[in-house]
Amino acid sequence: MALQSLRGTADLLPDELTRWSALEQTARRLAGLYGYRELRTPLIEDAALFLRSVGETTDIVQKEMFRFQDRGGQEIALRPEGTAPVVRAYLQHHLDKIQGVAKLFYAGPMFRAERPQAGRFRQFHQYGAEAIGSASPWMDVEIITLCLDVLRACGVTRTTLWLMSMGCRKDQERSAAQLRERLAPLRAKLCRECQARFDKNVFRTLDCKNPRCHELAWGAMPNGQSPFVLCEECRAHVDTVRLGLRGAGIAFDDTRTFARGLDYYTRTVFEVRAEGLGAQDAVAAGGRYDHLVEEFGGPSVGAVGFAAGVERVLMAQQAAGTALPAPGRGGVYLAVTRAPLVAEGFHFVDALRKAGVPAAMDLDGKSFKAQLREADKSGYRFLAILGEDEVTQRAMTVKDLEQGSQDLVSFDTFVATMAGRLKAAA
Ligand code: HAM
Question: Of 126, 267, 277, which is best to mutate to test ligand 1, by the most ligand atoms within 8 angstroms of its C-beta?
Answer without folding.
Answer: 126
